[in-house]
Every structure is written in structure tokens, then in C-alpha cells.
Write a structure and sequence with these properties.
0% helix; single chain; mainly beta; 170 residues
């Protein structure tokens, strides 16, 4: 259906920089109001951190974290109405928390060669009396690349594992 909506999204960012690192912490509140369907409106509080560190002339580290608390006032359906498919989130109001963290370590191995390792974690869970799935996940990446004058060629291995509990089968 057609709808007009209003989005309010104030935020605040604090950054700290030095010759060997840059760190950023930010907070944002977002409220989405749909004029023809208030039941579809939502709000969220989001806290982000990102840090870039030069550990040595050849080694860099990037750290990140994010946490979001959101209130959703309707279901999220991945199928057209009337198909009989169940929505991914039960109909009705709900409050959720999702958080993630990641890190990437990069190493300049030799002239034109770089290697990296990266790991991440993610979790999402309903809050209060909301009935919805809980998700936990982890990921790992390893890679190397060679830089040429105008291009680069690399290889990467990746593994991800995710569990979903208390989900609804479609």
C-alpha cells in the first residue's frame, strides 16, 4: 500500500584521534512513523564503536561493536498476503536486542603482499515478553593478497556458523 512516513533520527558521535589510532563512539535514536498505519511504526536505539589502530608500521587492527534495541509494532512477512506463509516475526508489538562485535588484523608480509585474519560474533534476542527467535552466530576469515600496479589478486577462506532457536518454520 502507499504510505507517507516521517523519520526522526538524531544522533551524537564522539571521535578520538591520535597519530596511531582513530576511535569513534556514536549513538543514534531512530523513530519511523507511518501516517496511514501506525501499527507499522518502529523505534530503535543504536550504539556503535569502531577503532582503527596502527600497531606497528606493518600491522593494523580494526575493532568494532554494535548494540541495537528496537521496538517493532508489526510483523515482518517475507511472502505476499494470501499465500498462507507465516511471518518471520509473530504479529504484534515486540522489543528486540541485537549486538555484534568484530575484529580484523592485517599484516603487510612483504612488498606487495598482505595477509589478514578476521572474526565476528552476532547475537539477537527478543526482550521482555516478546515471542520470537533467538539467533547466535560466529564467523572467521583468513586471507592473503598480492597487489599489482593497478590491481590485486587474493584468496580468502571463510567459515560461518549460526544457530536459530525458537524460530517459526515457514
Amino acid at each position: 500500500t502507499k504510505s507517507a512516513f516521517w523519520m526522526l533520527s538524531p544522533g551524537l558521535t564522539l571521535a578520538l584521534a591520535s597519530p596511531r589510532n582513530l576511535q569513534r563512539l556514536s549513538y543514534r535514536y531512530e523513530y519511523d512513523f507511518y501516517f496511514n498505519s501506525a501499527a507499522s511504526s518502529s523505534s530503535a536505539n543504536r550504539l556503535d564503536y569502531r577503532g582503527f589502530f596502527d600497531l606497528s608500521p606493518r600491522v593494523t587492527l580494526v575493532l568494532g561493536a554494535r548494540a541495537t534495541q528496537s521496538d517493532r509494532f508489526n510483523s515482518v512477512a517475507f511472502a505476499a498476503p494470501g499465500t498462507g506463509a507465516v511471518g518471520a516475526v509473530p504479529v504484534g508489538a515486540g522489543s528486540y536486542l541485537d549486538a555484534s562485535g568484530d575484529q580484523t588484523l592485517g599484516i603487510d608480509v612483504a612488498e606487495g603482499w598482505r595477509a589478514w585474519q578476521s572474526g565476528s560474533l552476532v547475537a539477537a534476542t527478543p526482550l521482555l515478553d516478546t515471542e520470537a527467535a533467538t539467533t547466535l552466530g560466529a564467523g572467521l576469515r583468513l586471507g592473503a593478497e598480492h597487489s599489482f600496479l593497478f590491481d590485486a589478486l587474493g584468496v580468502e577462506g571463510r567459515a560461518d556458523y549460526t544457530t536459530v532457536s525458537d524460530g517459526v518454520r515457514a
